[in-house]
């Protein structure tokens, strides 16, 4: 099968700093006396105060009344309860500026606190490396025979030397030897969708108990998450393609192809042109948390900080959700040139921002030439010429921190199957990383993912916790 076209080998969703909002949606969060307040309750509260003042309080304008009519209409407000954000829909006849003015009046009258931001566009940026030489790659002739280091019979795993670098095969063997009872885990891929019939992915999907769907499409508001771009399918296969099924490649998270404990929840918000909305990224994150995903992989970003997106990620973390995000491909020092959501990571302990490292086990590991870096970025994973699933049942190469991110998300999901949760997962990945890898930024604290050491640390922690509970009499 031919690899997917080179022009689709684009990486990393990135917000256009100058593009402006492409929807009329407004993101908002309101608190009143320390509690979250639904924007739809504000008009009644305002009316009571104005009435009690005998009309001496603010006189509402026509725009204010239009805001109130908008809030009252069915389907005009998305309530993202799991992450504490609301979205006022673009079908309303008022925009961000009118809603902002209205909430400022409410702030004065009701003593509320609020954040209110317009929606913004996100887009794919060009591939940091040329893959022209790889686009005619045929797996039956160039990737064959499995991988003895990984212990996999997937023919194209011979082209996954990047997984040898992170000692994945030895980590799988350590889990098998320890024989723990593995937990079922849901990993959300928040991206451009997936090839829903790909033979290496079709058995790996989470199923929604209400309708048997594998996720949601926030562009069309449907359950059709077919990938018309390619990026999401590549990320999904990297994280958790079916392993040891004698087909294609091996995925990081599942070592047993016949009984995958990590299931992929596919959440599509990026379209065929590589564009999406920040509001839809938040809707996807909310869906993941509400529907039991322990972790999510985010290979996108934006240059301008968004307070409400930071709030969404923080609230997801507070619910125990782990987010793995990409560092970006601009060869930049992020203290000087921020890249979000990665740049939120110092404030969110269960968010891991992942840089890209080289992928050849026969060479000295270093930071990839295109990767961003920062003092707060502690972990890198292979991101150069990563071979994975592509649409139409094919396979192909991509490079970038977009690829490093689902690799690490797969490792994090593997740790979750051992019983780890939340910040315990991110702490172990950080604490088990290799010693500092060479980089042009002279940062000594960036290390590469070491899956074997991470698994060993996780098993020790899980066994110690179980023994402690046994001594206390728990679980009897």
From TrEMBL:
Keyword check for Signal, yes or no: yes
- Give the highest taxon in the source lineage: Eukaryota
Which reactions appear under catalytic activity for this entry?
Answer: Hydrolysis of proteins with broad specificity for peptide bonds, and a preference for a large uncharged residue in P1. Hydrolyzes peptide amides
Q: Per its UniProt record, what Gene3D superfamilies does this chain match?
A: Peptidase S8/S53 domain
Indicate yes or no for the key word Signal: yes
Q: Where is the Peptidase S8/S53 domain?
A: 183-434
Q: Which CDD domains match?
A: Peptidases_S8_Subtilisin_like (cd07473)
Biological processes per GO annotation? proteolysis
Q: What is its EC number?
A: 3.4.21.62
Alphabetized UniProt keyword annotations: Hydrolase, Protease, Serine protease, Signal, Zymogen
| Annotated InterPro entries | Peptidase_S8/S53_dom, Peptidase_S8/S53_dom_sf, Peptidase_S8/S53_subtilisin, Peptidase_S8_His-AS, Peptidase_S8_Ser-AS, Peptidase_S8_subtilisin-rel, PfSUB1-like_cat_dom
What GO molecular function annotations does the UniProt record carry, in alphabetical order?
serine-type endopeptidase activity
Active site per the UniProt annotation: 191 (charge relay system), 231 (charge relay system), 402 (charge relay system)
Pfam families, per the entry:
Peptidase_S8 (PF00082)
Q: Which residues form the signal peptide?
A: 1-17
Under PANTHER family, the record lists: CELL WALL-ASSOCIATED PROTEASE, SUBTILISIN-RELATED
Q: Which family does it belong to?
A: Belongs to the peptidase S8 family.
Identification of the protein by name: subtilisin
Give the species this sequence originates from: Perkinsus marinus (strain ATCC 50983 / TXsc)
